[in-house]
Design a protein that fits this description.
By secondary structure, the protein is α+β, with helices and mostly antiparallel strands. It is globular, with a radius of gyration of 13 Å. The mean pLDDT is about 95. It comes from Methanosphaerula palustris (strain ATCC BAA-1556 / DSM 19958 / E1-9c). This is SnoaL-like domain-containing protein.
């Protein structure tokens, strides 16, 4: 049985699959940080642009395959599939959540950390 996810993480993955970028942005604190593909996005405006760029370029779906707690983070392993080179790809999503909001998200190739 898979561990129950904190509400903002569950909402993040739900919104990613719709996609609903406004709902995704609302999962984060105003000063949250996202690290993805070597880029850092800080705050709602930057996170919104990151998500808008993702959905403009690719159609993706995410299937959660594992959840673990490590060093104060919730690490969600998921298979991401879509119309991009190398699809599908297993990724680890490292979430830090405080007060029911995501404060940090780091996305890396599964098993590399």
């Amino acid at each position: 049985m898979q561990k129950k996810l904190a509400q903002p993480i569950e909402t993040y993955f739900y919104a990613s699959n719709i996609p609903d970028n406004e709902l995704i942005v609302n999962c984060f604190t105003e000063d949250a940080i996202v690290l993805d593909e070597g880029h850092t996005y800080r705050g709602h405006a930057a996170i919104r642009k990151w998500r808008d760029d993702v959905t403009e370029q690719w159609t993706i779906t995410t299937e959660i395959t594992g959840v673990a707690e490590k060093g104060g983070e919730t690490v969600v392993t998921a298979t991401v599939s879509g119309n991009f080179d190398g699809s599908p790809v297993p990724l680890d999503f490292h979430f830090t959540v405080e007060n029911e909001k995501i404060t940090a998200l780091r996305i890396v190739l599964a098993g590399t950390e």
